[in-house]
Amino acid sequence: MTGMAISLGIRIAAVLAVAAAALSGCSSDGKGTPAWTAGGSPGASTASADPSAGTASPGASPEATASGTGSTASGTAAPGSTASAWKVFTDPARSVSFELPQEWVAQSVTPEQGSMPGALKIEVKDAKGGYVATLQTGLQPQPVPACPDDAAKPYVVVSSVPVELPHRGGEGTIDPHVVFRVIQGYKFFGSYGITNVVGGAGEKSCGLQNVVRGPEGKGDYSFGDLTVLKVLAPDQKVAPAKAFDTLDQADKYVNQGSEFANVQRMLMSLKVKN
Q: Is 64 helix (H, G, I), strand (E, B) or coil?
């Protein structure tokens, strides 16, 4: 009996060790949940999992359910590392703020024509003067353009992390997410930004909007490299969109490189006065 008890105890210990390792893996690499891929958020080591993940109904937006390691993740990508020093940009009226690497520059420019009173347009450039992203507020709400079935192109949500921001709900919207999405043309064109607008039905779209529907009377706002990502023709300029030959290249850009790690941390840090 003593030998059987010892044997049983060893087997139980082994099972507990395996379970502990599995739990450790889930909490550290983010597989299966929206994970912080930027090497640590300003105040949390991992992003909160989207409540709809794993419980979404058929036809739910892939933006709201995608894993932080991406729909095409190989499972071996290591998170990129962010800049060592960060600063905070705040506009004079303190209506918006966000973090950016110490060497990057945020500059206020003239808002888009037709923007609402008090609108802001802030361009972010890296240490070499290269364009990174634009924050725009006070955008006039625009309906999503019609997209005929024969014009819609397949798209993939490579990264999607929920973020708390003021927004307006309604048909065709989700809670705001920081996303990197890729749409398929002669290449795979990618773009990052914050959105609460569903990409399209059946994981196809004519244009992926990096726009958040703002609260009533406040206008919409956007923060990303493009406000709308579309399929480009071979004779069109790709930048500031990204172009990849394969989806695996897009996944590596998101999950292994420091460029997106810095961008994602910056986008996640956005605060908008309601």
A: helix
